[in-house]
Amino acid sequence: MRYVLAVKQPVYGAQGAFLAYQFAQALLDKGHQIDQIFFFQAGVTNGNAFVHPANDEFNLLSAWQTLQREHGIPLHLCIAAAQRRGVVDGATARSAQQHNLAEGFVLAGLGEFTQAVLQADRVITL
Question: What CA–CA distance (Å, rounded) separates 98 from 94?
Fold first, then answer.
């Protein structure tokens, strides 16, 4: 089956984003396809390159990036929610050198999310 995951929970401070990551891993282990992971609301903090957890904590940002590299899953951040929360890329930052969009993540609009939803068999929001 083809899935789209929509993540609205922050990278830390709640369990939802980690649960979304675990769910994505379980889907892939069972042979399912994930067409896109869309981060919105506070979930856009998952794509903030300035997130640095303590050494003894699970690095969720790094885990998302590994998932993207190994499986080619697009990691899209809602551009409006990201800008409201200070997550910007080189094109939207005041200075191209002062962006904090993590590698592997892309700022996207609802159009990209809608297209993925229309083609998916299931949409899961966490």
Answer: 7
* Token pair belonging to 87: 């997550």
Q: Please, what sign has the CA dihedral across residues 79, 83, 85, 90?
A: positive
34 catalytic, yes or no?
no
Distance between CA 7 and CA 5 in Å, rounded?
A: 6
Residue pLDDT, tens place only, 27-66: 999 999 999 999 999 999 999 999 999 999 999 999 999 9
Which candidate in 78, 82, 108, 126 is catalytic? 78
Q: How far apart are CA 107 and CA 39, in angstroms?
A: 10
The secondary structure of the chain in percent helix, strand, coil, rounded to multiples of 5, reads: 40, 20, 40
